[in-house]
Amino acid sequence: MPHRNAPLTETGRLRLARCVVEDGWPLRRAAERFQVSHTTAARWADRYRRLGAAAMSDRSSRPHHQPRKTTDEVEREVLRLRQEHRIGPLRLAVRCHIAASTAHRILQRHGQPPLAALDRSTGEPIRRYERARPGELVHIDVKKLGRIPDGG
Asked: What residues make up the domain containing 96?
C-alpha cells in the first residue's frame, strides 16, 4: 500500500508507464497528465521497460546489506549479561564496549522489559491488576461505625 501522500497507486503507475512506453507519449506530457514530476514519470517508465508490469509495486526501503550491524555475538553477550546481572543499557554498554543506544535497541528488539517493570529478586515481570474487560475486578471498601450511646 502506498503512503498516503503518494500521487500514484500501482494501477496509476502502470497506466503512466504504458502511456510512455507503448503509446509513445512524450515524458513531460505523461507526467503533466498524471500530476507527477518528469523524473518520477521517467523512473516508472524505465522500470516498466526493464521489468514489466510486476515492477510497478512498492519496493522495500530496507538496505540490502548493513556493514555496521551489531554482531550476533555482541547481541548474545548483551542478553546474557542482562539475564545474569539485571543491569540497564548504560552498564551493558560499558561492559560490551558499545553505545548505550545500541544496547537499548538490542534489549527492545528481543522484548526485554525495562528494569522498573521487573521484580528485583526474581527478575520476573511484575503482575498488576489488569483485566480484559471493565468491571471484571470489583473492589469494595467497607466502613464500620462503632455504637455510640446517646449523649456521647
From this structure: 72-117
| CB hemisphere CA count around 77 (13 angstroms) | 15
Note whether 77 and 51 are same-domain residues.
no
Please count the structural domains in the chain: 2
In three-state form (DSSP H/G/I as H, E/B as E, the rest C), the secondary structure along 58-79 is CCCCCCCCCCCCCCHHHHHHHH
- Residue 132 within any structural domain of the chain: no
pLDDT digits (tens, 9 = 90+) for 87-100: 999 999 999 999 99
3 state DSSP class of 125: strand
In one letter, which amino acid is 138?
Answer: V
| Residue 130: inside a domain | no
82 and 113 within one domain: yes
Q: Cβ–Cβ contacts within 10 Å for residue 89, how many?
A: 23
Q: What is the rounded CA–CA span in Å between residue 16 and residue 50?
A: 15
CB crowding 92-112: b at 16 or more within 10 Å, else e: bbeebebeeebbbbbbeeeeb
> pTM higher than 0.70, yes or no?
no
